[in-house]
Amino acid sequence: MSSVFNKIKDNVTEGVRENQEDAIKRGAGAGKRTILIWGIAIIVLVTVPTYAGDYVLNVMILMLLYMALGQMWNLLGGYAGLVSLGQQSFIGIGGYALAIVSQKYGLPALLAFGIAAGVSVVFALVISIPIFKMQGVYFTIGTWIVSECLALWFSTWAWANYAQGYNITITYQMTATHIYYVALAIGVGSLIVVFFILRSRLGLALMAMRDNESAAEVRGVELYRTKLKCFLISACVTGVAGAGIYLQQAFIQPTNAFGISWTVSMVFMVVIGGLGTVEGPIIGAVIYVVLRQVLYNFPGISMVILGIIAIAIILLAPKGIMGIFGRRVTIDIFSVRRK
Question: Which CATH number belongs to the domain containing residue 218 in this structure?
Answer without folding.
Answer: 1.10.3470
